[in-house]
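Here is the promised in-class demo. Please do not try to memorize the tokens; focus on the logic of going from shape to residues.
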């Protein structure tokens, strides 16, 4: 075994020794072990480049992606998202009335633990809560308008580093643990976990697709996917939230997707985003 493989093997053992069961170490220690695993697995990828998914680990695909980004397919949808964000509700208020800093540059703080309710809140949840608070009907969770508004808010946060907090509160720790268990849980007819694809086989091929690292993966959500664009309608057809993507991953291992904004998906979002703390927000990303 050469030195590179030895180092990677040691990193994997270290990570697995921490993550083989319930939370044993502090959240911060687990986050450092999580990030170290990927940094040793992909030594040629800078920490910030993990925000670019497969384009941060594959040089050929990166060239193709950079050429597409020159005329990014999500730009028209971003303009629509901005218009929706700024359009006054029937009562004259806007989304800016509901968020800190008027909703600009705050994506790096989501999802967050709300001590008052003892739950984790996502950005999409707060967008719909804002609508309800102002007498408007909530939007559907996974795509179209809510994804466009969320994408615009992410766009205003580009360059800000993910800064998810896990307070020393048993309720917050329990949600983080729930997200971790979800990430490593085998499921579906294929009996595969999120970790099987995006940790142990990150960088390997699956049916012609390169598997992305979990580190940094949530920094570029909502995403604009070419696959969704081909099946969607209009300029927002390619947009989707991270819970839409979770459901798609579940389908791919032949597991019935859970409901968007379910406690399970919110916990998984909390865990994965916290594990990527320090990586810059890069939403909306363009993906295959």
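The designed amino acids, position by position:
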């Amino acid at each position: 075994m050469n030195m590179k493989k030895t180092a990677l093997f040691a990193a994997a053992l270290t990570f697995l020794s921490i993550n083989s069961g319930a939370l044993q170490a502090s959240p911060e220690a687990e986050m450092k072990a999580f990030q170290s695993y990927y940094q040793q697995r992909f030594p040629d990828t800078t920490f910030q480049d993990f925000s670019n998914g497969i384009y941060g680990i594959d040089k050929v695909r990166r060239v193709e992606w950079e050429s597409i980004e020159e005329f990014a397919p999500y730009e028209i949808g971003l303009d629509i998202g901005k218009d929706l964000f700024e359009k006054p509700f029937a009562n004259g208020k806007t989304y800016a009335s509901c968020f800190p800093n008027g909703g600009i540059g705050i994506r790096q703080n989501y999802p967050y633990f709300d001590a008052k309710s003892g739950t984790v809140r996502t950005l999409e949840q707060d967008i719909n809560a804002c609508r309800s608070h102002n007498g408007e009907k909530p939007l559907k969770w996974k795509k179209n308008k809510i994804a466009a508004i969320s994408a615009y808010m992410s766009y205003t946060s580009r360059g800000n580093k993910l800064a998810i907090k896990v307070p020393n509160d048993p309720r917050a720790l329990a949600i983080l643990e729930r997200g971790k268990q979800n990430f490593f849980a085998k499921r579906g007819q294929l009996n595969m976990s999120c970790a099987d694809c995006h940790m142990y086989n990150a960088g390997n091929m699956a049916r012609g697709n390169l598997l992305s690292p979990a580190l940094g993966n949530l920094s570029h959500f909502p995403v604009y996917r070419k696959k969704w664009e081909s099946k969607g309608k209009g300029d927002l057809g390619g947009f989707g939230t991270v819970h839409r993507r979770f459901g798609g991953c579940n389908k791919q291992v032949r597991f019935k997707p859970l409901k968007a904004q379910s406690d399970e998906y919110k916990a998984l979002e909390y865990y994965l985003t916290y594990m990527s703390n320090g990586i810059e927000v890069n939403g909306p990303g363009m993906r295959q």
